[in-house]
Amino acid sequence: MTFQTAGIHHITAFVRNPQHTTDFYAGILGLRLVKKTVNFDAPEVYHLYFGDQAGSPGTIITFFPWPESRKGKIGGGQVGITTYVVPAGAFDFWKERLAAFGVEAQETERFGERYLQFADPDGLRAEIVAREEGANSEWSFGGVPADKAIKGFGGAVLFSMAPESTGRLLENVMGFTKIGEDVGFVRYQSFGELGNVVDVNATAMASGHGGYGTVHHIAWRAKDDEEHAQWRKRVADNGYQPTPIVDRQYFNALYFREEGGILFEIATDPPGFARDEEPEHLGEKLMLPEWYEKHRGEIEQLLLPFEVRELEAGK
Questions:
Q1: Looking at residue 48, which CATH number applies to its domain?
Q2: CA dihedral 32, 145, 192, 287 (to 10 degrees)
Q3: pLDDT for the residue numbered 218
Q4: Model-level pTM?
Q5: Which domain holds residue 120?
Q6: How many whole angstroms separate alpha carbon 106 and alpha carbon 117?
Q7: Contacts of 251 by beta carbon, 8 Å cutoff, 6+ apart
Q8: Of 6, 141, 155, 275, which is least surrounded by CB within 10 A?
C-alpha cells in the first residue's frame, strides 16, 4: 500500500490558565470546546480540545493548562506557528475581528499567500490564511458566523534543528510532496483538504525549550487502527523509535521524535469525541476515563473552574 498521511490530526500545546485559553480560542477565534478531560498521565491538569462542530481530525487544537508551568521558549524542535484556515474572502473579517479584541496581528506573505500572524495570551504563535479548499465549519459562536469561521488547520510551520532530515521524513516516510522554497521555508503538501500544508525552515534553528507558550507535539492522521499499526511498523523500519500504541479514548496514538527534535504523534481518525457525549453536548462536562472515575471528586477539586463565554470586543 502507499503510505501517505492526509495531514495533521491535532496539535497540542502548553498554556497556563483554562479560562484565558478558552476565552481566546472559543471567545475570540470562535472554535468549539469539544472535550473537557484531563491529562491521562497527570490528572491534576486539564486536557482541553477545541475544533469544528465535531472536533474533526484536521481541526483539533488541544491544551494542557498548567498554572505553575515555566515560560517556554519557541525554537528548534517544535511547531513554531500553528496555521488556521478560513474561507476564501474571510481574511479581512479576521483582520478586523482580531483588532477589535486588541490582538496585535501582522500581515505577511509566503508562497504567494497572505497570512495574518498573531499570538495567544501565553505567546503561542498562530496565523490565519484564507483558502478555497476544505469544508466550511458548521459552528457559529461569539459573533463568528459559520461562513467566516475557522475551518480547521491550514497546516503548521515546523521549526527544525535538522531541516533536511525533517524534510526527508515528511517526504519519504509520511508521504508529503515537496512543493518548493520561499522566504527561508521549504513547503511540503499532502492530499488532505485540511492540515495538509507544512512549511519547514530551510536553515537549522537553535533549540527551544518546553513550557507555557510552546507546542508539545504535532499529530498526523491514520485512517483506522489497521493503518495505524502499519504506520508503527513503517516508522520503526525507517530507523525511528515509536512508542507502543496508546489508547487516548478518542483516538489511538503512537509517538516518536524526529531528527530535527520535533515530537511527532500518529493518531487514528476514529472513534472521535462523540463516543462518550452526544454531539450537541460536546465539551459541556468533565469527561474522565473509567480508571479515573472513582477519583472524580478529588480530581475536580484540583482543577480550576472555567466556562465557555461570549466576549464583547473592546473589553
A1: 3.10.180.10
A2: 10
A3: 99
A4: 0.97
A5: 8-302
A6: 5
A7: 9, 267, 268, 269, 270, 271, 272
A8: 275
- Measure the N-to-C terminal CA separation of the chain; round to a whole number of Å: 54
Phi, psi of 176 (to 5 degrees): -75, 160
> SS3 of 225, please?
helix
pLDDT digit string (tens) for 42-80?
999 999 999 999 999 999 999 999 999 999 999 999 999
- Percent helix, strand, coil in the chain, to 5, is 20, 35, 45
The answer as to whether 311 is a domain residue is no
**Structural domain includes residue 27:** yes
Specify if 75 maps to a domain.
yes
Instruction: Give the strand pairing for 8-15 and 60-65.
Output: parallel
Extended strands (E) in the chain? 8-15, 32-39, 42-51, 60-65, 78-87, 106-110, 113-119, 125-131, 152-159, 177-182, 185-189, 197-201, 214-222, 246-247, 252-257, 263-268
Residue 217's pLDDT is: 98
Grid cell at residue 283: 465539551
Three-state DSSP class for residue 201:
strand
**pLDDT score at 116:** 98
Q: Which parts of the chain have pLDDT scores under 70?
A: 1
